[in-house]
Fold this sequence. Notes:
single chain; globular; mainly beta; 81 residues; 44% strand; 5 strands
Amino acid sequence: MVKLGSKVRDAISGFEGVVVGKAVYLNGCHSACVEGPAKDGERKDLWFDEQRLETIEADAFKPQPSEATAGGPVHRNPPSM
């Protein structure tokens, strides 16, 4: 199982990037969204079955705590018009 924030490589295509999302499906499939390097100003995110991914560097990216993870409000009231 790969961890969020790990740098990984797809064993079949060779695509490399950082795991930015994960999903578990009803059929038992575990998938990971891998964000590759930006090219021409555009990001490329691809989904892979976790069993295809090799970890290159664990904890390559550590996100900063957000309000949602720090116990703060998740939703704010929109400003009055």
